[in-house]
Amino acid sequence: MTAAGPQVGSLAWIDLTTPDVDAAGSFYSRLLGWELESADTPMGRYVTGSVGAGPVGGMMAPAPGEDAAPPAWALFFGVADADRAVDAARRLGATVLQPPMEIPGGGRIAVVTDPAGAVAGLLEPGDGGSTVRGEPGAVAWVECQSRDVPASEAFYAELLGWHARPPSDGYRVLELGGEQVAGLMAMPDEVPSAVPGYWLPYFAVDDVDSACGRVEELGGGVLVPPRTVQDLRFAVAQDPAGAVFGLLRTPGQRAAFQ
């Protein structure tokens, strides 16, 4: 799958904010086979990780003077107009963390916290492509773990036009134009109550069990050991700095975005 421009309402990009970009780049390149490219931008040094078909995501350190938030992946969803999307998000109960701003390449981004507490990015695309999906090392699926599933479902339905399939064992698959774009589930009981809702990217790997072993060899940790649900083999892990991500293998190693 190539890195074509993002469809409005679908995943457009992922970003990691982490205190040690070099260490993060080494971890993800050795785990997922990313090629790394570094560039100086007005926001600071930015490292992009790519697979054969194109870019997967970016990594950067917090800006000087920013509050020290825990390292985390941020997911950005395509919108036609960042200003209008932020206005709509605010009306729907979101808190605006970053008003629309221009980024290199001509696009504009904004960041909000949805009504259930999960941070979500909004991207009005410029000249660049979007994150690659559907091959090993790329994004295979994204999922919102929410403290208030009805509120999350209603928010993204209004903001991005998503429609939820009937839940299966409490898990909702969200669709846009008949295509799967994301999953939505209640925060697991074992997660400490202080942890807010969050978006989780899953990276495609050939062997989830072997990848989990590699995570630990590289200094990360496995939070949810490998398990299989409806032919999907997955696990949840964290990198050495603590950023959480998923690992996923689907039947025939296709992307879960179908």
Can you describe this structure?
Strand 15 and strand 16 form a beta hairpin. This protein has four helices and 16 strands. With 258 residues, it is an alpha+beta fold. This is VOC domain-containing protein.
What tags apply to this protein structure?
about 260 residues; alpha+beta; 2,3-Dihydroxybiphenyl 1,2-Dioxygenase, domain 1; 2 domains; eight-stranded mixed beta sheet; Glyas_Fos-R_dOase_dom
The number of distinct structural domains comes to 2
Overall residue-averaged pLDDT value: 91
CATH class of the largest domain: Alpha Beta
Strands ordered across the widest β-sheet: 2-3-4-1-5-8-7-6
Q: Compute the number of strand runs.
A: 16
Return the CATH topology of the largest domain. 2,3-Dihydroxybiphenyl 1,2-Dioxygenase, domain 1
Give the termini separation: 12 Å
Largest sheet: 8 strands, mixed
Pfam families: Glyoxalase
Protein name: VOC domain-containing protein
Domain VOC: 10-125, 138-250
Outline:
With 258 residues, this protein is α+β, with helices and mostly antiparallel strands. Helix content is 17%, strand content 42%.
